[in-house]
Amino acid sequence: MRKRIILLLSIFILASVSCGPYSFSGKALKGIDTVAVPLFENQTTRYGIREELTEEITDAIIEDNTLKVVNIRNADSALRGVITEYRHECYTFDGSGNCNEYICRIFVNLVFEDLEKKESIWEEVNLEGYGIYSATNDTEEDGIQSAIDKLSRDILDKLVKGW
User: Is the pTM higher than 0.90?
Assistant: First the structure.
């Protein structure tokens, strides 16, 4: 019985020590407390997409509360983006060859930079966000919004989690 207690206590101590320094916070961003999110550039013909995406990402950062969103003049860092491509395609077909679902795809290039050190922290090329919507019940705007939602979640994860 005594050996079992010692074994369990040892396992508990080892588990506590090995998991101790791990964190889900944005501490991977040493020295970065504030971020500016300038309006993304839009290289597509889809009007309004850059405003929607920039606003959604900014709102996600504010809600997450790891970094404070500030003006570029007061920021430690900046998240810059370029929307490089927008695609709207049929995703699934019914038995008659008609489109059942559409997919909207948005591709962005990102640079997260340390403004004080004047260097890139990370870059991402062709990050894709997509949204699938019903041809009969939804609109292309619904697909675009789903793509923007996915992109903003993925960008926020990359920005604050540091994996």
Answer: no
For residue range 80-124, what is the model confidence (pLDDT) as tens digits? 999 999 999 999 999 999 999 999 999 999 999 999 999 999 999
- Any idea which fold 25-161 has? Double Stranded RNA Binding Domain (3.30.160)
What is the rounded distance in angstroms from the CA atom of residue 54 to the CA atom of residue 56?
6
Q: What pLDDT score was predicted for residue 30?
A: 81
Q: How many CA atoms does the CB half-sphere of 55 hold within 13 Å?
A: 6
Longest Cα separation, the chain? 73
Task: Give the number of other Cβ atoms within 10 Å of residue 90's Cβ.
Answer: 13
What span, in angstroms and rounded, lies between the C-alpha atoms of 106 and 89? 12
